[in-house]
Amino acid sequence: MKVIESLDEWKELRPGLSGSLGLVPTMGFLHEGHLSLVRRARKENDHIVVWIFVNPKQFGQNEDLDQYPRDFARDLRLVREMDTDYVLAPTVEDVYPAGFQTHVTVEVISKPLEGTNRPSHFRGVATVVAKMLCLTQAHRAYFGQKDAQQSLVVKRMVDDLGMLTKIVVCPTVREPDGLALSSRNVRLAPAQRKAATVLFRALKEVEAAVAAGERDGETLRAQMRALLAEEPLAEVDYISIADPGTLEECTTVQDSALASLAVRFGDIRLIDNLILNT
Ligand code: AMP
Questions:
Q1: Are strands 256-265 and 235-242 parallel, antiparallel or unpaired?
Q2: Predicted pLDDT at 135
Q3: Candidates 32, 37, 75, 184: which one to mutate for ligand 1, based on the most atoms within 8 Å of Cβ?
Q4: What is the mean pLDDT of each run of 10 residues along the chain (278 residues)?
Q5: How far is ligand 1, taken at its centre, from the CA of residue 25, in Å?
């Protein structure tokens, strides 16, 4: 496994790679969710590159950039075990050198849900993903369903700008009690960790309601809101039952819907989602 911390070094190396290349973009502090993407990439490509970079442009001013957990040595150990060919871990100055002034804005799909409370988040995501796709010329790039809106934003960008990389979205990996794995989970105090299962419980409750015939969007949102209200440590950012393609809130659920939510436990903000099929 080759660890590359300079983009110039990667630019020299890339033209010499033949066969297919799979890219797994991450912000590090890897867990089984990330590793499921690496495993899938490993199966489907001749070479794989894991990108590890805590992207400052996708954090807002009052967000947890400084507290974001990092453990590069452990990340390297984990990806080495997965037979990774390349780790690309550039510095912030290398990705955004002085004079950097090009940003990618995916307009409509970036606005609701995460975009409401994190207005510059997807501009940061789209910009860094565009740069990664240009640099790597990857045949496939692997993203998690855990960040459902991110996958939609990236797919929209790739289609709109005619990028050739295929975007592969992989299922959410969860703890046995349903909590979606996230690098931020380590920051939860024991009581918050226990309370955090409320996200998945709320999603499963509306899934059961839809299976039992409920189709009214507002009723489903109210059900989630009521369950969250029973958890004193949870402060809701948003609750949504939306069209899984456009993210417009559903009045009535037709074929399927994306149930999603963002909840704060102190200064730790968790998100989760589930596709509801009628
Ligand atoms: P992050 O390091 O949090 O930016 O995540 C990097 C990639 O891993 C993103 O595509 C995420 O959607 C994906 N990911 C994060 N958590 C999970 C999870 N629990 N299951 C599957 N994929 C995940």
A1: antiparallel
A2: 98
A3: 37
A4: 98 98 98 98 98 97 93 98 98 98 98 96 98 98 98 98 98 98 97 98 98 98 98 98 98 98 97 98
A5: 9
pLDDT at position 99: 98
Q: What is the DSSP letter of 4?
A: E
Q: What gap in Å lies between CA 10 and CA 69, rounded to an integer?
A: 26
SS3 per residue for 80-132: HHCCCCEEECCCHHHHCCCCCCCCCCCCCCCCCCHHHHCCCHHHHHHHHHHHH
pLDDT at 213: 98
Bin 96: left if φ > 0, else alpha if -120 < ψ < 50, else beta: beta
Q: Characterize the bridge pairing of strands 86-88 and 268-277.
A: unpaired
Task: Give the residue, out of 146, 150, 184, with the most ligand 1 atoms within 8 A of its beta carbon, to mutate for a pocket test.
Answer: 146
Pocket of ligand 1 (CB under 6 A): 26-27, 33-34, 36-37, 143-144, 146-147, 170, 172-173, 180-183
pTM of the model: 0.98
How confident is the model at residue 105, as a pLDDT?
98
